[in-house]
Amino acid sequence: MFALKFTLLMAFCLAASRASPVDFINVGYENQIINDDLFKSSSILSRHARSPEGGSVGIDYRKDENGRVAVAQYKQNIFSSADGDRSLDAHAHASHNFDHNSNAFGGGVQGKWSTGSGGSADFTKDNFGRQASVQLNQNLFTSRDGRGTIDAYAHGTRNFDYNYNNFGGGLQGRYRF
Fold it and tell me: Where does the UniProt annotation place the signal sequence (predicted)?
């Protein structure tokens, strides 16, 4: 339980730090006293600029050996390589299993690479335990502006807490902002 709370706390801190503007003092003026009345006060969580590749929202629907599951997921980019082939994202997700009428919430870290159509490796901690997974994607459709995609995918998951494997596949739609 501590690990889940710690992961969610770190994800919140990361999101808050990414949302907060950082003001740097000009070189040579670091040690001078600054009159705070000259500056407007701003909210801690205000966001003044947003990069187009900063985050994404996704909705997945899949059917595998666990039943029919819908997942809503938010991702925030932490690192991207200069050539764009590799990235590291923090994510939070919520899911609902229609066959077992259960809900799940969690978060984790995901690394992606582009080899051919692409793939990812993911480590998450949620109420289903600690899981590691590998996913391979094949793009079926990309919007004209490149932000919307529909992919077919196959995945394999290993749950370390409950000692089981899960294999499946499905369709995935994403819109990046």
Answer: 1-19
72-81 long-range contacts (CB < 8 A, ≥24 apart) are: 75/110, 76/14, 76/15, 76/18, 77/53, 78/14, 78/109, 80/53
Bridge partners, 76 (sequence order):
55, 90
Predicted confidence (pLDDT) per residue in 161-170, tens digit: 888 898 888 8
The Cα–Cα gap between 37 and 155 comes to 56
pTM, rounded to two decimals:
0.42
Q: What is the DSSP letter of 23?
A: -
**How far apart are alpha carbons 33 and 157 in whole angstroms?**
55
Torsion angles phi and psi, residue 6, rounded to 5: -65, -45
